[in-house]
Each structure stands twice: as C-alpha cells, then as structure tokens.
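Please, structure for the following, as tokens.
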Amino acid sequence: MIALERVDDYLEFDTGPESIIINDAGKPVLEVCLSEGAILVHGSCDEIFFAADLRNSENEGSGYYFKTQEGKVAHLWLYADPDDPNAAAQVGVYVGDQEVTWITTGWVF
C-alpha cells in the first residue's frame, strides 16, 4: 500500500505484487494490477495500459492522471524499457512534481 502523503523509498519486486493500492488521506483511491496481459488501473476512471503503452519510446511510457482529496494533480507513470523485451513494468507515483515512489514490479509482458 502506497500513501500519497509520504515519500517512500524505491520498491522492487521479483514477482508480483498481486496489486498496488494507492491511498490518499487514509482511503484507497487507486488499485493497479496485472490483468490478462495488461495493467489495469481502477480509480475514478478505469484505464487499461498495454505493453505498447509502457514501451512507448516517444513518450517514455504512459500516464494515468487524477486529483488528490486536496485537489492537487497527481499521476502514475507506467514504463517498461522499450529495448528490453524482458523488462518489468515500472510504476512511478507523483503528486504535483514530487515523486512519492518508484516501483519496479515483477510484471513482464
């Protein structure tokens, strides 16, 4: 579980995790999980990200934007190295310009 209110160290998983829960003011606001070969973000607006989205070399990944309970702009940044077919998905969590954490998952697709 990741809290938007505090900065966490980088997290790294060899396998999984089953899902990543993002909390805002003590309440879960997003769930990020692997679903049928894609990453699914459950939030106020669900969105699916495919391998091509994460490996988009022009944009260097893909983003999911949302507002915090305080009305600040926050986003997830989803990335996988486009030059490495075995690269795991990475998820950056940001509030404004501040990085909350960067997670290297065990999700390879």
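The helical segments are 51-54. The mean pLDDT is 92.
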